[in-house]
Every structure is written in structure tokens, then in C-alpha cells.
Design goal:
369 residues; alpha+beta; 3 domains; 9-stranded mixed beta sheet; 35% strand; binds zinc ion
Length: 369
């Protein structure tokens, strides 16, 4: 293993080492230790071995899928037989409906849609969060939300417009994962005082190590390019504990969108979300004024996916040549959208709630001084 001298870290505190020609040793400016080349090389070997223990899947590379069961194969076949795919010649949206619910207009641009055929079985969701209220109730939720806004164009709440409110199952990738993270840093505590004409500052430095296994029960990422990501995040959270195995009956009377973003594409985002959260959790177990020379190693131990349909009452509104999107969470009734007169308002509604159920097992940390 080739180790670049520039990357030598202090075995005591992880700070960068400098070579001192006068004594022919590597010295640490922080903790004032010095080491022979053999000592440093040995430490660096262990340091890098640790990194390999946490070597992670490459970006976008996923663990192999489990073999498809006979039951799953049959489910996919019947999904293919019982669904119809419509497509919109104007905006390209694709709509899935069950055989009994004919789609007449596009939920997105309101133009007539055409029947395209069957839906490939691989688009069969594994889970579904059923709608918990009907269209009348959705209209009420929408009205009470819109009423609280400063200005609503009349046509926005006209009967004709409300008629376009569509019960839409939006495709989501939901990851379940067990992850491991290790955080190493120098924890610093400082105190200052004045005595006579002198001002003293005392800095104490500690070596900090934290390791944890953290499990995630559901990290969501929207699988549809068409629907605004921010809009979907602003009507979160959804209660995933109420998800049920998918059944065709849930589609009856509703439309469904089909994913056009593969899980490989959302994986880096989901991974980032989990590891960032791990780092925050590990740091929160320490109690220093500052953490410096910090390094974090992360690993995904297990990963599995649900392709889940989430219930959304969706409506678009054409105003001055722009399409405005509105959505009501079909489970909680939470509404969101952008109004023509107040740009950027969506951001105010966008409170990112990471719907993460977390189980953390902390293995100790230790100090060096
Ligand atoms: Zn040191
Ligand atoms: Zn369309």
C-alpha cells in the first residue's frame, strides 16, 4: 500500500503531521507528539484498512435483486391484463387506469388522451397507500387551503376547474436500509480568562470516535419526472405504516402515474440523505465546542425497495400561459401549490420532513487525554 507522506495523520489526534528534518521525525502541532516513520506508516495502514471496511457500493450500483417468485410473476401478468395505459399526445404524460375507469383527459394538461394499450408488468407496484377520503372531501381541503391565500383567480375555484381535480397515485421509490457509520474527529473545548494584564485561552483536545448501526424503515424518492419534486415534498409526510400490498382494487376510480425515474437514479440521493443524517446523529452524541479533522466512513449493509403508490389529489391550472400545479395529500389532507400572484410561495410550504424511523445502536467513544 503506497502511502503519500503528505497524507500522514497523527495517530493520537488525526491532525496532519509535518516532517521535522532536525530530529528526522514526524511531529504533530496539535498534540505535540512525534513519531518515527515506521510508527506513522503502521498507523496509516490501519487507518486505510478501516476505510476499506466501509468501502461502499459505487454510485448508482445496487445490490442484486432477489429472484422473482412465481407469485410475483403471476401478479405482474394479471397487472398487465387488467390495466390500461393512456398517453397524452400534448404533454407526453402517461396514465394507468384499471379496465373499468376510462381516462378521458390528461391529469396534467387537460387535453384528451388516447388509449395506448396494456401496462408492462414491471410497473406493478409492490405497495400502495390507499386514498383515505373522496373527491368531495379533497375539494373541501383544497378550498380551505386556498381561502387562506391572498389572491385566488376566480377560474381557479370554478366548478369546471374543480372538476379537473384527479385522484392520482404517484409512484415513489421507498428504500429500507441498514447502514453503518463511523465518525472520527478531534473534539475541542476552549475556555478563556483574564488574570492581571494577561488573557489566557486553554484549549483541550480529545480524540473522538463514534460508531453506529442505523436502520431506515422508509426513505422516499418520487419516481415521476412530470410532477414537481418540491410539490410532492411539500405535502409530505405520508404514514408508510399504513401501506398495504398492492391490489388492483385500489386503482378503481383513480388514475396512476407510472415511474419514469429508475431506482438507480434516485439511489445516490437516498444514500446521501441517510449518510448525512447518520453524521448528524453521531455528532449529536458528542459535546464539544468544535469537531475538527473530522472524517466519516459510511456503509450500506442491507438495502431493499418498495415501489409504492402514494395517494394525491392533483390539479393543474392554466394561467397566463403557465401551468400551475396543486396537490392535496390523499391521506392527511395537507394541500400545497404555487399561486399565480405570489411566486416562490411554495418554498414556504416546503417543510422537509424526513419520514425516517430510526433505530440507532451506539457503540462507545473514547478519549485520549
Ligand atoms: Zn496529534
Ligand atoms: Zn397532457
Amino acid at each position: 500500500m503506497a502511502i503519500d507522506a503528505k497524507q500522514f495523520h497523527c495517530p493520537n489526534c488525526y491532525a496532519d503531521l509535518k516532517f521535522d528534518p532536525a530530529v528526522q521525525r514526524f511531529t504533530c502541532e496539535y498534540c505535540r507528539s512525534s513519531f518515527s516513520e515506521a510508527e506513522v506508516t503502521d498507523f496509516m495502514r490501519r487507518y486505510m484498512e478501516q476505510e476499506q471496511q466501509y468501502s461502499d457500493l459505487e454510485e448508482g450500483q445496487l445490490p442484486p435483486e432477489p429472484e422473482m417468485s412465481e407469485e410475483e410473476r403471476r401478479d405482474r401478468e394479471s397487472f398487465n391484463e387488467e390495466t390500461q395505459l393512456y398517453s397524452c399526445p400534448s404533454c407526453g404524460a402517461e396514465i394507468i387506469s384499471d379496465g373499468n375507469t376510462a381516462a378521458a383527459f390528461c391529469y396534467y394538461c387537460h387535453n384528451p388522451v388516447i388509449l395506448k394499450g396494456r401496462v408492462d408488468g414491471r410497473y406493478r407496484p409492490s405497495m400502495v397507500l390507499p386514498f383515505e377520503f373522496d373527491k368531495d372531501m379533497a375539494v373541501q381541503h383544497f378550498h380551505s387551503w386556498a381561502k387562506s391565500k391572498w389572491f385566488i383567480p376566480k377560474d381557479l375555484i370554478s366548478a369546471a376547474q374543480i372538476d379537473k381535480l384527479t385522484g392520482l397515485y404517484v409512484p415513489f421509490w421507498v428504500a429500507r436500509s441498514s447502514t453503518s457509520s463511523r465518525m472520527e474527529a478531534i473534539g475541542e473545548n476552549r475556555r478563556s480568562w483574564t488574570s492581571g494584564n494577561y488573557r489566557y485561552t486553554e484549549t483541550k483536545r480529545y480524540r473522538v470516535v463514534r460508531e453506529a448501526t442505523i436502520n431506515y424503515e422508509g426513505v422516499p424518492a418520487d419516481g415521476s419526472q412530470k410532477i414537481d419534486d418540491l410539490l410532492m415534498e411539500s405535502i409530505e409526510p405520508f404514514d408508510y405504516t399504513r401501506a398495504r400490498p398492492f391490489n388492483m382494487a385500489y386503482l378503481s376510480g383513480f388514475y396512476a402515474d407510472k415511474y419514469d425515474v429508475e431506482k438507480e437514479q434516485v439511489f445516490p440521493r437516498i444514500k446521501q440523505r441517510m449518510f448525512t443524517n447518520n453524521g448528524t446523529m453521531l455528532d449529536s452524541t458528542t459535546n464539544y465546542m468544535a469537531l475538527t479533522a473530522r472524517r466519516q466512513l459510511d456503509r450500506i449493509d442491507t438495502l431493499s425497495w418498495d415501489y409504492m403508490m402514494l395517494p394525491v389529489w392533483f390539479m393543474t391550472f392554466d394561467y397566463k400561459g403557465k401551468l400551475w400545479e396543486y396537490a392535496v395529500n390523499g391521506q392527511s389532507g395537507k394541500a400545497a401549490g404555487e399561486l399565480p400572484v405570489s411566486k416562490g410561495k411554495l418554498a414556504a410550504f416546503c417543510i422537509l420532513i424526513a419520514s425516517l424511523i430510526i433505530l440507532a445502536v451506539f457503540l462507545g467513544g473514547y478519549f485520549l487525554t
